[in-house]
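ok so for the tutorial part 2 we go from a plain amino acid sequence to predicted structure tokens. step 1 is just haveing the sequence, like this:
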Amino acid sequence: MKKICVLLIAFSLVSCDQSSNETSDVVEAEQLSSLEQAAIEAGVIPDARNVSLSGAFERRSDLGEDRFCAVGNDEGGYQVGLLAVFGPDSKCEGLGSAERNGEIVQITLDSEQKCSFRASFDGVALKLPGNLPAACESYCTPRAGFGGVSFNLVGEGDAVARSTRGREIENLCPGG
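step 2 — the prediction. this is what the tokens look like for a chain of 176 residues:
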């Protein structure tokens, strides 16, 4: 009987400790949320919920200039184009569509094999995941890939997006 009582007391203490951790996690999440809200109100970071994906995005490196563009809106979806450069003869380039739900952007490339993946958008940068479906390789030359590429917003709106140039695809976002 003593062993059972000792076990019950031990389980009670563990249970209390876990609920205490859960409570502190909730409080910590609320604090992070408050901190993020304060940063948004101060203009330090954008509110991703109020920033459109429509626009031109770039990232420059020693290997070249990566580009992403989106024409459209959250309600009707976006027409998108992507270019990732890995040197003078190595690249990935494709066209497709995107739908946005908060910070998640579902991108579907369909100008070669259909390739679909989720990217993240924080209002300033669009980040592609590191691991993409094999079909995405159809958009790339050997030793190149879209995986892990990120783009920074350089200009907002459809007009800016329509001026985004590709390598083999003249206009990455020609219409709307």
